[in-house]
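I wish you would study the pair of lines that follows with an eye to the fold:

===
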Amino acid sequence: MWSKHVDTCLLKHMIDTLLVELLTEELPPKALKILGDAFGHEILNGLMRGQLKQRDPRGMEIFATPRRLAVVIPDVLTTAGDRETEVSGPSLKIGLDPNGNPTPALAGFAKKNGVSVESLEQRDTPKGKVFVARVTIPGLMLDATLSTIVAEAVKKLPIPKVMRWGDGEAQFVRPVHGLVMMHGLRVVPGEVLGLKSTNQTRGHRFLSAGPITLKHAGDYERALREEGKVVASFEVRRSEIVRTLNTVAGDGVELVATDALLDEIAALVEAPTVYAGEFSPEFLAVPQECLILSMQQHQKYLPLRDKANGRLLPRFLFVSNLKADNPSNIIHGNERVLRARLSDARFFYDQDRKIRLEARVPQLANVVYHNKLGSQLQRVERVQLLAGSIARKLGADALLAERAAWLSKADLLTGMVGEFPELQGTMGRYYALHDGEPREVADAIDAHYRPRFAGDALPDGPVAAAVALADKLDALAGLFGIGQVPTGDKDPFGLRRAALGMIRILIERDLPLSLHELVNAAFAGYDRGIGDARTDLQIFIFDRLGGYLRDRGYTTLEVESVVSLRPVQISLVPRQVEAVRAFNTLPEAQSLAAANKRVVNILKQAEAKGESFMDAEADKLKEPAERALFDALRSTSRQAASLFSQGDFTGYLKSFAVLKSPVDAFFDSVMVMVDDQALRQNRLALLADLRREMNQVADISKLAA
């Protein structure tokens, strides 16, 4: 009996490393990293909620391979400590009878919580006094709760579609064939997804000798690597792959690989081995973008490029899940597969060039752009007119812009773009150059989709910018006109991306165009069939503009002070916001901002009462303070107007700092809303003049704390 009691006490206070692993069939590679991270953090959160994990969580290790999700968490308790809490019970009115004796309701509450009636306390609440019981809640036991924590973690994983297997009711993204739950040296009993926990895991499907029995939860990563030939950590495996790829590629050579491709490759293998292959140099006559996509998209191969000249090399690397003593068969097999893929790409390229782009344009009439907005040919016709109009405003060659717009969608009908939709625009450029089109036209065809994503390059030159703006404006106007407005996180037509791309082009290419005129011209391209959503579209664009500026480091108040004025020329906005930032450092800034806010409120209330006022008249000024403000404003405005016309927005705003004293004096000694109508309207007009003159760059009142 004594021995059993000691064992129970030792177990209750034991702290050790916890291991949880699900052994599965091959998991979706593009989702593996996300699934692994979510699995680990959900289990950690469950342990911390149950107070079974109380120390720094940074020691947690997450593991994810094609055939497993696992997490190792140090310093996990066998049993959480007891905790004190208070439970609210009946009110005094219900808990005591008229003689002050406990009622059956109060006695029942005390019994339910395992305390005596005498130990109950009284607490004041908004609804009156209530009885409160102090109770001790025994700590959760790991053995009793771990299965539930793991099962709940599995349910919360970001899995779009689950599947069932066998005769059971278990559901997961892939069939699960093993469960490991260990705390230190022992197996934590439990069942998840119809599987009982063990201390046995499995290594590589072919390289491992058999099941691996784990002696301690902390042995997991080492045992898998040494006995199972598996690199269990996703991050470690990916780093090893990248390091080996660069080593095998050699000096003067760079990998052509995105982070997403490297993530996917790391999610496809458990024991990565890098091999090098070759292909015939004759395929290099095909545009390298086609070759790269053929290698990356279908086969997950890594193309290689000469660092010196950027040209693709007739070599490639690939990552295998097997390490062979004689890899020649593996290499030759992959070379044969790639040869077939590149032959297809070359066939498409050769066939596409037999038909000129301009000959394909009429066929766009058979391609639906949107059932409410017509065909791709109708879209091209609208974009062509709009691109020409924008080019003329920019002083660019309108004929080149219109030609590029006319040909911009023709490559959608080519075999290469049909096989690789990601190459739309890119192949249009190659085919346009082959057809003898001017280089500016070809470049604009390629660039009119840009920027495709955050950080993407922008169109170069006014012709390309005109076509890119026209393409985005037409989409925004048409889809807003038929009510296809983004809502929440849903944006199926990429309108947020289109608006942000338009903003980037206008600002970062410093194009002196009126947003109002651009939006009007875009809607004018639709003769009928869509609603007038000009205002909604402009508000949408200004919202994106605000986000763009905040991402560049400006504060919400700085951004709002400018964007709230609905500026006409977007390209000037960053300079305006920068001017606001400089103005806000002046000692007079807050006082003038507060005064502006007061002016705005006075004028708003006056307008609501039907007051009308024009420009202030000097001969109607009575008080010295209002005459002083009138004179100071007139003098400062002349200087500020010159600075504004020169684009010196910082100097413009700073010039109004001298108005602090006359403005303060005006509000200290002048009553605006007097009974004398003429005097009242003149003073309101003076304030309106002040608001107009000071707020041409930004609404200074937005800066008031």
